[in-house]
From TrEMBL, chain A:
<keyword id="KW-0812">Transmembrane</keyword>
<feature type="transmembrane region" description="Helical">
    <location>
        <begin position="71"/>
        <end position="94"/>
    </location>
</feature>
<dbReference type="InterPro" id="IPR050601">
    <property type="entry name" value="CPA3_antiporter_subunitC"/>
</dbReference>
<keyword id="KW-0472">Membrane</keyword>
<feature type="transmembrane region" description="Helical">
    <location>
        <begin position="6"/>
        <end position="21"/>
    </location>
</feature>
<dbReference type="Pfam" id="PF00420">
    <property type="entry name" value="Oxidored_q2"/>
</dbReference>
<keyword id="KW-1003">Cell membrane</keyword>
<keyword id="KW-1133">Transmembrane helix</keyword>
<dbReference type="InterPro" id="IPR039428">
    <property type="entry name" value="NUOK/Mnh_C1-like"/>
</dbReference>
<feature type="transmembrane region" description="Helical">
    <location>
        <begin position="28"/>
        <end position="51"/>
    </location>
</feature>
<comment type="similarity">
    <text>Belongs to the CPA3 antiporters (TC 2.A.63) subunit C family.</text>
</comment>
<protein>
    <submittedName>
        <fullName>Multisubunit sodium/proton antiporter, MrpC subunit (TC 2.A.63.1)</fullName>
    </submittedName>
</protein>
Amino acid sequence: METLFSVLVGILFAGSIYLLLSRKLVRILLGIAILGNAVNLLIFTAGRLTRDVPPIIPLKSYLPVEATANPLPQALVLTAIVISFSFLAFFLVLGYRAYQELGTDDLLDMRVAEPKEHSEPPLGY
Amino acid sequence: MAATKTTVDITAAMVTEAVPLADWLLVAPVLLTMAGGAISIIFRKKSATQPWIAITTIALVILSNIGLLNHVLTNGVVTMVMGSWLPPFGIAFTADPLGALLALTASVATMCVAVFAMNSIAENERRYGFYPFLLMLLCGVTGSFLTGDIFNLYVWFEVLLISSFGMQILGNEKVQIDGAVKYAVLNLIATTLFLAATGLLYGLVGTLNMADIAGKLKAFDNSGPMLGLATLYFLAFAMKAAAFPVNFWLPASYHTPRLVVAAIFAGLLTKVGVYALLRVMLLLMPEGRDWLASLIGIVAIATMLTGSLGALAQTDIRRLMAYLVIAGIGAMMAGIAVGNEVAVSGAIFYSMHSVLIMTALYLLVAFMFQMSGTFSLREIGGLYIRTPLGAGIGLILLLAVAGLPPFSGFWAKLLLVAGALEAGRGWVAAGILVSGLFTTIAVGRLWIFAFWRGGNEHTVDGIQALPIARSSDAADISWSIWLPLIILTALIFVIGILPETMMSITENGAKTLIDPTAYIGSVFGGIR
C-alpha cells in the first residue's frame, strides 16, 4: 500500500514541477495546488498506512489497549490543507490582479519591477 | 496495565506542577503580538490610534524578550510544553541563547520600523492593515525563534509568510504586484519543500520534537535517508534565506514594497531562513552538516560574491541594499559551513547584526529619498551639506555593513574568519574577506555619490547644486524618522565598542547548538 502511495506522490510531484517550470502564471498556480496536495499525501504516507481501530483509549486508562491507527499525520495533514488552501486562494487573487494590472500572464513579459533596459550605474567617481 | 487501576496516574503523561512564572516569558511575546494584532484589526478604521497600539505591544514584547534572554542566560535552556503534555507529545517551546537573542533583536528592529512608519505609511494604507500585519509578522518571526517543534516551526513560517504577502502588496501598485508574484510563489515553494522534508523526517524518526529528533537521529545506524533530508532542508532554507543560486526572488521584489516594509523584510525574513538552517544543520543533523560542509561553503562564497558584486552593479539604491542583504546571508552561511564553535558564534553574531543593520539601511534609504526625491545613484547627491547628521549616520551604517571596525559587523566577521582559519578552511576566510572588500567599495561609492559630492552627476566638483525638486529640508524631517535611525545607529555603535557581552551570549548560543545535551536535557529532564 505504501509503495503504491509513494509512486502516486512521485507522480504528483513530477506533474507539479512540470507545471511550475511553465512560463504561464495559471499553470504555475495549478502546479502550486498540486504541490500542496502531493506534500499532504506524502505526510499521510510517511505516517504509515495502517488499517487499525481508531485511537480511542478506554475509560480509566491512559494507554490504548491494542494497536491503533496513527492520528498524528491526520492532524498534520489537516493543518497543511488549511494553510495551502488559504495560500492558493490568495494566489488566485494575486494572479488575477497581476493579469489585470500587467496585461499578461507570461512571466517573461512581467518586467515592471525589473525593466529590461536600465541605466548603468555611474562609472568612476 | 493502567486500565485495571481505579484512578488514572497522569504524572506519566503530563506535567502536574504549575509552570513557574518566569517560564511564561517563553510564550509571552507570541501571545502579546497575537493579541496586539487582533486589537489593531478591531481598531483598523482609527488610523490615528493604530500606531500606538502597535508601539505599546512591541514595547511589552521587548521587555518580555529582555526578561527571557536574562532568564535563559542565568538558568540555561528553558522549555515549556503546550497543554502540559510531557514531551515529545506536547508542542514544546524551547528558548536557547540563540533563539532568545534573535527574538529580542527582531522585536527591537520591529519597534524602530513601527515608529518610522507613523510618518511614512499613508492613512489609507494603515486602514489596509499595515500595523496588524506588522504585529503578526513579528508574531511569526518570534514563534519561529522560540519553538522547539519542527512542525510548529512550519506553522510559524506560514504565519510570517502570509503577513509578509499582505505587507508586500500594500499600496497596490503595478510594480508591487509584479514583485509580489515572484516573492510569493518562490517563498511558498520553499516552505512547501520544508514541509515535505518534515513529513519525511517524521516518517523516519516518528517524532516532531526537535530535541527528540536530535537524540533519535544520533542513534540511527543508516545515515543515508538523513543525509538526503539534510540536503532537502538545506535547499528549502537556502531558498528562504536567498542564498545563491536560489536568490533571484529577493532583488526582484525587495525594492517594490513601501520602504518601511522592505526594511522589516530585509531585517527579519531572510534571517529566519538562516536561523532555521542553524537549528536544523547544527542541532538536528550535525552529521548531515559535516557531509554537506563543502557544498555549504561553496554556496556561501558564491552568495557573498553575488551579493557584493551585485551591489556594485546597481543604479537603484533600493536594489543595491537588496544585494547587501544577500552578501550578509553568505557570511552567515559561511559560519554554518565551518561549523566550529567560534564560527557558529560568528554566524549568530552576524545574524543579530544583520537584523539591525539591514533594517537601519532601508530606513536610511527612505530618509535619503525624502531628502533628495530620487533612488538613482546618478541623480542623488549633495546630502552632506543639507544634513550633516544624516551623512554621519549614513557613514556609520554603511561602514558597519561592510564589516569595518569599530562597528558591530566587524566583530561578527572577525569571529567568522578566526573560526574558518582555526578549522583549516582558509578558502572560506578568503571568501569572507574578498567579499568584504567588494562591499566596502560598493557602500563607499554610495556614500560618496549620495552625500559627499555637491549635487547629481553633472555637478562640477566643489560646487553645491540647488536642492532637487520633490525633496524636503532637514528641518522638516519628523522625529519619527530621526529617532529609529539614531537608535539603530547607536546600538550598532555601542555593540561595536563593547562587544564582550554580545560575544559571550553568542558563544553560549554556539555551545548549546553544537553540544545539544543542554537543549535535550531541558526538554526531557528539566520539565518543571
